[in-house]
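To assess whether the prediction recovers the assembly geometry, we first specified each molecular entity separately, as shown.
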Amino acid sequence: MKARWELILIPPAVLSAAVLILSQAMFLKGSLHKDLGLGRLSPMMSLHNFLELVADSYYVESLWLSFVCSAAATVATALIALPVAYILARMQSRWAAVLLSAVIIASFITIVIKVLGLLLIFSAEGPFNSTLKWLGLVGSPVAIIGTIPGVVLGLMYYTLGFAVLLFYSVIVTISRSMEEAAEIHGATRWGAIRQVVLPLCLPGLAAGALTVFNVSMGGFSSTALIGGGKVLTLPIIIQRTVIMETNYGLGAAVAVLLLCTVLAINVWSSIILMRTRTGGLV
Amino acid sequence: MSERIPAYRLRRQILAGLILAVAYIIVLGPIVFVCIASFDYGARAYVIFPPERFTLESYWQIPQRYWDALWVSVRLAAVTMVAACAIGIPAAIGVVRGRFAGKRLILTMFRFPLQIPSVVSGVAFLQAYYAVGDWTGWHGVGSFAGLAIAHTFAATPYVVGTMVTALQRFDDSVEEAAVILGASTMGTLWQVTLPMLRPGIFAGALYAFMVSFAEVPMSVFLTGSTLLTFPVEVFNSMQFDFEPTILAISTLVTVVSLFVVWLVQRIVGLDMFVKVGAAD
Amino acid sequence: MKALQRLAYALVLGGAAMTGDPAFAGQFDGVTVRVATFGGKWRDVVAEHVVKRFEAEGGKVEYVLGQPSTNVAKLIAARGREIPFDMLEAMDNNLPALKAGNFIEPLTLAKIPNVGQLDKANYDADKVMIWVTQEGIVYNKKAFADNGIPVPTKYADLTHPKLKGKVSLPDITAGGAMPAIVGMAYEGGGSETNIDPALDLVRKIAPASFWSSSSNLQTMLVNGDVYAAGAQAGNVQRLRSKADLGIVFPRVKDKNGVLKQGYLVQIKGTKQSDAVHWLINAFLAKSMQMAVFHEAGQVPVSAEALDDIRKGGTYDFLRLRPEEIAGMYRIDFTKVDEPAYVQKWNRRVSR
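The predicted structure of the complete assembly is given in tokenized form:
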């Protein structure tokens, strides 16, 4: 007598589907109404908002800016998270648990607090600039407020915590014995990583990196605080349009633009990943 | 070979240690700075660093609204954790073990919210709540339930993901043994399977709690003037009304998080989180 | 033993009740008013000189903090549901939107006796002016001297090469935005109706950041991240003990500097109208009006406060004599299309 496990799936599936469809449908519909100012929407449906997105290059430029910042942030995050995740995954001492907890705690701390710390560190008379001056590397202080690197830094911090956990959970599934076997056969440590471990966890890592990218595209609190009103990524524009200007229709349209872009990138990446999997050695 | 290994190991360990040191300084640096800076309550207009003096003054002066917001965040995260698990765990079990076509589709649906940038979800829920409000009179914006639904929406994919991974690595043989020995399906589930899946469940629940507690973009759209989460309260403070007391309360949150994690380590052991999906 | 405990408990409770707050006798017992106002130092000033007296009458105030434009947006977003606050501190540029959205509940001026202290032009049934700020260019005297930068006289001076990365201008969402923009517009040959010259100048200045919180701006002015900013005299006053700041009022049309007016309005749908009137009256009382000047560095509107201040001496960063105040520019907001300007700003600023 085999259990029909599908049945317990039904309530959660129905609930999730309902919430998903309802929320997305409402908002998509909202984008099809013109704004009348002061938060009111015209009762007729029209493509007015979308035409405005296309007509004014401002939105597309902002989208490109968001893409660049998020991509850079993903790379930066991966550069730090991957080595850390690998080392922790391979660690045999009890320190692994402690270090992981440190990462978990860092993720509890909301991004705004980390940004506050960053602003302190990078302020004109803060430690970063003082050290640079002392080393004689720069003549005048380096600022992060209002700069794209600053925004990338903020986005990196936004995703760093759970990126480590995500990559860790992928790497830890590859048994250590695989690397050891490779090394016994003469591979260097790095060679073993490159040719044995990496190919095996590539799908998982890629999925992790994609998640990091998605989250970066959607985060705006760090950008709002560090961007200094100058770096206007798409989430910031959405927030301004919806909350500041109460143009709900246009805001929804811009959000649709962001969503479609992110989805497109995800689909495209999945396709590429699948191709490399079937094309290479499995 | 045994003479070679120690030098080898040492080099590796030093390298690993260095990498970790640099990485952790980067990760934890800002947080540590905030803690240090919280001990100097300078004049209201600005923050100074390094601190000129050491005082706990700002801790006593934390405005009530931060405590209120912190309490909201804790309750919200707890509710989200429970709801996300209630939805995600049966969903994962059903998907991994069920027999039906379209599994990938269903799984994609559950994991879909991960693909939606949080700011988009925020706008989506805002609009949805307005529309629902016009129909039914229930106004979700600025309500605890409204926030909870949105947070659960964002957190459930994490639970589903961790549970699916844990289930896929799960060794059925113990379950089969239980069934052979006469246990009912439900009994097996409760007494054998779920306990063995504890690492996955705990990890998923922890993710859900973390996602909700630290969430900012959606919450900015869905909080009202009276119901604010802790991150949003701090965000507003940094934008409009900066005061050094946010350093103090942030330090407190850090310390409490440390304590909670330590507690979890004592009671359940962090190897739970460490071992999710481990193949060793 | 149990009975004894219960008795003790009852005595303690009873005692507490009897020695309770004299506020029991206040006229605003149990009344909570939500006031939307600026945060930071301003909120402290309000708390000390207005809210404290209100609390002595048994009342309670909940603050809804933010720039007025943010708070107006909250009003709009509330959409026929419960209003987010009862009383709003707004600025001249917010009034058109408030009126158009039908958010204002007219006041019963008879309940606000202190309006007698005001110039008749400064209040009507919809709104009561409570302060005026003088907007110009705030700069760090020491930083300028140390770096050999000439003291600015007009907005265009902010393009000085040594000021690169050291200037902050108000973000479009900040209260100080319109005065700076209009000022720069006139300097470039534009006006309230044509702000393109201002946007061009903003791009040329290429400020390090746009401030949206005066607290944060003050932080930056003090720690040297910013040497000069489009701001108001109040910032100079508030930071008097921390930094040596000066302010310059550039020529705008035929006047010097820009005046910005702050008002209090009652929000339609409030259930605490009496309390709101009382609070507005308290804002106009001498104690608060003097604090507006001494602590926040803004110009009060009450005649008795202004008299006192003029007798007290001159201040190099404020224009206090009537002819000086008359010599400052007031923006004609009927000519300002703020939503359109916000859109323009967003586009020009990010490129």
